[in-house]
Specification:
Blueprint lengths: L4 H25 L11 H26 L13 H25 L11 H8 L3 H31 L5 H14 L6 H18 L2 H25 L2
Helix pairs in contact: 1-2, 1-5, 2-5, 3-7, 3-8, 5-6, 5-7, 5-8, 6-7, 7-8
Length: 229
C-alpha cells in the first residue's frame, strides 16, 4: 500500500492513541491517576457513531485513492466461506496463548484496571447496555481496528519493511494502545491477525477473528455478572 491521505490519517490516529495510552500508563505508574471511570450508554453510542463514520470515510478515500488494488488490500467478496473459515481458525489459534497470558497477568488486574465497558456493565446490567456494548465491541471495534492496524498500517509497513517486521511492529503498536496489562495477552492475538492478513489478504477473515475474540470476552463478562448475583 503506497503512502496516501488515508494512510496519513491512519498514522495520525495511531499516534494520538499511542501517546494517550503512554500518558495514561505513566500517570498510573506515578499513582496520580484516578481509577478507571465508567462511561454511559450515550457515550458508547456517540463513540460508535464517530468511529463508524471515520472508518467509512477512510474506506471511501481508500477506494478513491487505491481502487485498482482494493482486492489486494483484503476487500473481496469471493470465497466468503473460506474467508469465514480462515477467520474462525485464526480465532482458535489465538485462543490458547491469549488465555495463558490472561492467567499470567491476573495478579496485575484489579477493579481500577477494568475496561470502562465492564464497569458500566457491572453498574447497569440492562439489555440496552449489553446491546450497545455488543455493537461497539463485537461489530464496530473489529471493523475499525482491523481497517486501521492491519489493512492500512500493516499494509503500508509491508512496503517499507520485511513482512515479519511489518507484522511485529503493527502488532506491538496495536497491543500497546490497549494499555497494561491487556497489551500482553493481546499481542499473540495481534500476531495471528497480522499473519492471517498477510497470507490470506482477507479483511473479512481478520474481522471475524477479532469479533469472535471480543464476543467471548463479553460473554465471559456477562457470565461473571450473573455469578455475582
Amino acid at each position: 500500500l503506497d503512502f496516501s491521505f488515508p494512510v496519513l490519517l491512519t498514522l495520525l490516529w495511531i499516534a494520538i492513541q499511542f501517546s494517550s495510552s503512554m500518558e495514561r500508563e505513566w500517570r498510573e505508574w506515578q499513582q496520580t491517576s484516578a481509577p478507571s471511570q465508567s462511561i454511559t450508554v450515550v457515550q458508547i453510542m456517540q463513540s460508535s457513531l464517530i468511529t463508524f463514520t471515520f472508518g467509512t470515510i477512510l474506506v471511501l478515500m481508500l477506494a478513491l485513492a487505491h481502487f485498482d488494488v482494493l482486492q489486494k488490500l483484503g476487500f473481496r467478496l469471493n470465497d466468503l466461506r473460506q474467508q469465514l473459515r480462515d477467520g474462525t481458525v485464526g480465532f482458535l489459534l489465538a485462543l490458547l496463548p491469549v488465555i495463558a497470558l490472561l492467567l499470567l497477568t491476573y495478579p496485575f488486574r484489579s477493579e481500577e484496571s477494568l475496561h470502562p465497558f465492564f464497569l458500566l456493565l457491572k453498574a447497569q446490567p440492562h439489555l440496552s447496555t449489553i446491546s450497545w456494548i455488543f455493537i461497539s465491541a463485537v461489530i464496530i471495534a473489529p471493523l475499525f481496528e482491523e481497517l486501521i492496524y492491519r489493512v492500512l498500517f500493516q499494509g503500508w509497513l509491508e512496503r517499507l519493511l520485511p513482512p515479519v517486521a511489518a507484522i511485529l511492529v503493527s502488532s506491538f503498536i496495536f497491543s500497546v494502545v490497549h494499555g497494561f496489562p491487556d497489551c500482553i495477552p493481546l499481542f499473540p492475538l495481534a500476531l495471528v491477525l497480522g499473519t492471517l492478513f498477510y497470507y490470506r489478504r482477507s479483511y473479512f477473515a481478520i474481522v471475524v477473528t477479532h469479533a469472535l475474540f471480543n464476543a467471548i470476552n463479553l460473554a465471559q463478562a456477562l457470565a461473571n455478572q450473573q455469578n455475582s448475583f
